[in-house]
Write a structure and sequence with these properties.
By secondary structure, the protein is of the alpha/beta class. It folds into 2 domains: 3-94 and 179-221, Nucleotidyltransferase, domain 5 (2-Layer Sandwich); 96-176, Nucleotidyltransferase, domain 5, CATH 3.30.420.40. 41% of the residues lie in helices and 26% in strands. It has 8 helices and 10 strands. β2 (12-19) and β3 form a beta hairpin. The chain is elongated. The chain starts with a strand and ends with a helix.
Length: 228
């Protein structure tokens, strides 16, 4: 069984192909602005590296976020297009799931809290099975309330390390600042093995909040209406 995975929710564009023995091939380009132009060539490159074609695929997966609004949209749209064209099932993997899985694979034990930078002073995280987002101070309070200690991983943890670290909580290094596409592929392959797939039409982004453009437009619109 072969699962193609796309990752573009963070500061990179990545594609990986996972088979029954693990990741067969992968390619990642670090970029925060060129997801559209890079993602499809990366799909072709990975399939070539694996000696495979789209006809060999059994499912298509995407990192559905949270993360960068445009990047998420590009990756989800590309995954849906490939899956629909081949009548294949789809799988959505969140950035938080992929970052935590990568940390576990790297040897992290105990409590692992993935933290994604949402920009505009906010982060998203997964703690005790609950996904939430807000200012780093809110996460810091939640960590303190647990009475536990552990490791924080992801770009959000790195950006707000001074605020989140300490009190028994360690901030991991930059190697896990974003979701590795290989982790997305492995998690998706496991989901497909369990029959946990979607009709590609139901594959949707996990934004958690409105896009920055929408927030800015609403703020200006409300401000001008109040002023008018």
């Amino acid at each position: 069984m072969m699962v193609l995975a796309l990752e573009s929710a963070g500061g990179s564009a990545g594609v990986a192909l996972a088979g029954d023995e693990g990741v067969v091939a992968e390619a990642t380009v670090h970029t925060s602005r060129r997801h559209v132009e890079l993602l499809h060539p990366l799909v072709a490159e990975v399939l070539l590296l694996a000696g495979a074609s789209v006809a060999d695929l059994d499912a298509v997966a995407a990192d559905v976020g949270p993360g960068l609004f445009t990047g998420i949209r590009v990756g989800v749209s590309a995954a849906k297009a490939i899956a629909m064209a081949r009548a294949l099932p789809a799988v959505g993997v969140t950035s938080l799931q992929a970052i935590e899985a990568a940390a576990r694979d790297a040897g992290a034990g105990g409590v692992v809290v993935p933290v994604v930078d949402l920009r505009r002073g906010e982060v998203a995280w997964s703690l005790s099975g609950e996904v939430a987002f807000g200012p780093a101070a809110r996460l810091a309070a939640a960590l303190g309330a647990t009475g536990e200690a552990g490791v924080l991983v992801g770009g959000g943890a790195l950006r707000y390390a001074d605020e989140l670290g300490g009190g028994g909580w360690e901030v991991a290094g930059p190697s896990l600042s974003s979701a590795p596409v290989a982790s997305v592929a492995v998690l998706a392959h496991a989901a497909v093995s369990k029959g946990a797939t979607l009709d590609p039409a139901r594959l949707v982004p996990c934004y958690l909040r409105e896009a920055d453009a929408r927030i800015n437009w609403t703020t200006r619109h409300d401000g001008s209406r109040k002023g008018g």
